[in-house]
Design goal:
Layout: H1 2-19, H2 24-29, E1 37-42, E2 45-50, H3 51-60, H4 65-71, H5 76-87, H6 94-101, H7 104-114, E3 117-118, H8 126-137, H9 145-151, E4 156-160, H10 161-192, H11 200-208, E5 214-223, E6 228-237, E7 243-249, H12 260-268, E8 272-276, H13 283-291, H14 302-323, E9 331-341, H15 343-352, H16 358-364, H17 376-379, E10 397-403, H18 412-416, E11 423-428, H19 436-446, E12 452-457, H20 478-481, H21 485-503, H22 516-522, E13 529-532, H23 537-544
Parallel strand pairs: 1-4, 7-8, 7-9, 9-10, 10-11, 11-12
Antiparallel strand pairs: 1-2, 3-4, 5-6, 6-8, 12-13
Helix pairs in contact: 3-5, 6-8, 7-8, 8-9, 10-23, 12-21, 14-15
Length: 545
């Protein structure tokens, strides 16, 4: 009787794995399988499904006897999701796929995936997965997961369900800990609120500040010492007296238009805004990779060049303020702030004084295959750099805002604790690229600067604050962007202005806006907002118990 129960539990895990968190993320996040049969392995137990059964269900909605064994453990929503995943066209061609899969980041993803998806001889599926993807992408209008399954170069695809369930358990732990951390932040934000409504004059005052007109001018910078040429958009308010400068650094695969909405808002508020384009990690670089004219998503050197781009931009603005009539007398080069998203968030923190932490990278990167933190694929590129001290800090920068920054390993506690200027970290609880807990919430506890803020947008993703660019290479699906990105962007505008007014323009009267009262007043569903100024690692660890 006990043997029967044990077998039933094992078969239930095997069947449930097809539709549960254990396997569906592998199917949906990385379109990677193929052959005549899909075999699930759990210890010494195996069970297989004909690919024909999946194909029949995907195309007709009919579940045959082979698939029925597993379908009984799935609800209607999961079955519908599986059917959609199998047939949804993937908007890439053979050049796009081949170029990415031969980059260091692409190969690392294949290595990780190869532990779960294996050949019928139980070897890593690294090469088989890559071959299946490339072969399927070579067929016009038929690059779907179902076709990838058919192109797998062995007769059977073996899914290591034991390893898959281990990853699922790790993911569930991360999800639970993140939820507990988010709950603490939301609770503290509410406790800090006086619950008294701000008077209408207080709220209206911030809107009155955004009444300046501005002109945008593009300049081309040529740093001969690095053989690096790049453009920057300069937003100049129509004000004659010197104004503070805010630099905006875009994320990986993006460009200087992705935060144009924020640049315009800050310019209308009286700030001069400078938005550089980082040539080795922008949309053009991604397009070059996908078209076959570049070999990497980004070069490790970008971790150095991005902050140096900003430093060179500030040097150029200094020269323009001395020699160019358009800029002369209008730039306050003693009052500078930086705001960046994702890779740009790293850029901002580097300029603020957080150094590349090679000791932390040496500790974290060898175990990268066991992490669910995708951002480490980018951070660990730094181990390919010469292990030396890079001068990325800029004393001209007085305060920074880092949105969805990547920093946990490339900077770590030792480096982030060295930042002395005011910092605001903006995090999204639904971020799966730079997860909130390891990349923003825990790093926030490492900051020792006297003025620090953690702004949490509940439910927002890695892409919520990024505006769609006309130069987008791969459109981000609506489901990935998440709910109401316009609301998330409005939060960024609402908090960045008083933050920079307080700590860059040195107008302490705006400090009142950097409060739970103000945040609770502007907070809306479906993305409720919280703000805290203190949080300890001990508080988080207590919540994780």
């Amino acid at each position: 009787m006990n043997d029967l129960i044990t077998k039933q539990v094992i078969w239930s895990k095997l069947a449930g794995g097809v539709f549960s968190i254990g396997l569906l993320p592998a199917l949906t996040a990385y379109p990677v399988l193929g052959a005549e049969r899909l075999t699930l392995s759990y210890g010494i137990v195996e069970r297989s499904i004909p690919i024909n059964s999946l194909e029949k269900y995907a195309k007709t909605g009919k579940i045959d006897d082979d698939l029925a064994v597993y379908a009984q453990y799935a609800d209607k929503k999961q079955l519908t999701q599986l059917r959609k995943v199998l047939l949804t066209p993937i908007p890439l061609n053979i050049v796009n796929v081949s170029q990415f899969l031969y980059t260091s980041i692409g190969e690392k993803l294949l290595e990780n995936l190869g532990e779960i998806i294996q050949t019928d001889s139980r070897l890593s599926g690294f090469y088989a997965i890559r071959a299946a993807l490339i072969l399927a992408a070579a067929e016009p209008n038929d690059f779907t997961l179902l076709n990838v399954l058919r192109k797998f170069p062995t007769s059977s695809i073996l899914i290591n369900l034991d390893r898959s369930l281990q990853i699922a358990d790790t993911l569930q732990t991360l999800v639970n800990q993140t939820q507990n951390a988010v709950a603490i932040i939301n609770e503290q934000s509410q406790l800090k609120s006086t619950t008294s409504n701000l008077n209408s004059g207080f709220l209206a005052n911030i809107k009155k500040s955004s009444n300046f007109t501005y002109k945008k001018q593009t300049i081309i910078l040529n740093d001969q010492s690095r053989n690096r040429t790049f453009p920057a958009d300069i937003y100049l308010p129509n004000i004659s007296n010197p104004r503070p400068i805010i630099v905006i650094s875009h994320g990986l695969g993006s460009d200087r238009t992705s935060f144009a909405y924020l640049a315009e808002h800050l310019a209308k508020s009286g700030f001069i805004v400078a938005v550089p384009e980082h040539p080795g990690s922008n949309a053009e670089q991604l397009q070059a990779l996908l078209s076959g004219t570049a070999q990497t998503v980004t070069n490790p050197r970008e971790l150095i060049d991005r902050p140096l781009d900003v430093k060179y931009l500030l040097d150029e603005l200094t020269r323009l303020s001395e020699n160019n009539p358009t800029f002369k007398g209008r730039l306050n080069l003693q009052q500078i702030g930086v705001i960046g998203q994702s890779f740009g968030g790293y850029t901002a923190l580097a300029l603020a004084g957080a150094k590349i932490n090679f000791q932390q990278l040496d500790k974290d990167c060898p175990d990268i295959k066991n992490t669910l933190n995708v951002s480490l694929l980018l951070q660990c590129l730094a181990i390919n750099l010469p292990n030396t001290e890079y001068n990325l800090f800029d004393s001209r920068v007085k305060a920074v805002i880092a949105i969805n920054p990547v920093n946990s390993s490339i900077m770590g506690k030792a480096s982030l604790s060295q930042i002395k200027i005011p910092v605001m970290i903006i995090s999204g609880s639904g971020d799966t690229i730079a997860p909130a807990l390891p990349e923003q919430i825990i790093p926030f506890t490492w900051l020792t600067t006297a003025n620090k803020y953690l702004m949490l947008i509940n439910g927002s993703t890695h892409f919520s604050t990024i505006a769609e660019s006309p130069n987008t290479v791969l459109p981000v699906p609506t489901e990935v962007i998440g709910l109401n990105p316009a609301l998330a962007r409005s939060y960024v505008k609402a908090l960045s202005f008083p933050f920079f007014q307080t700590y860059v323009a040195e107008q302490p009267s705006y400090l009142s806006y950097l409060s739970a009262d103000y945040v609770n007043t502007i907070s809306q569903q479906p993305l409720p907002l919280s703000l805290v100024q203190s949080l300890t690692l001990e508080q988080l660890q207590e919540a994780f118990k």
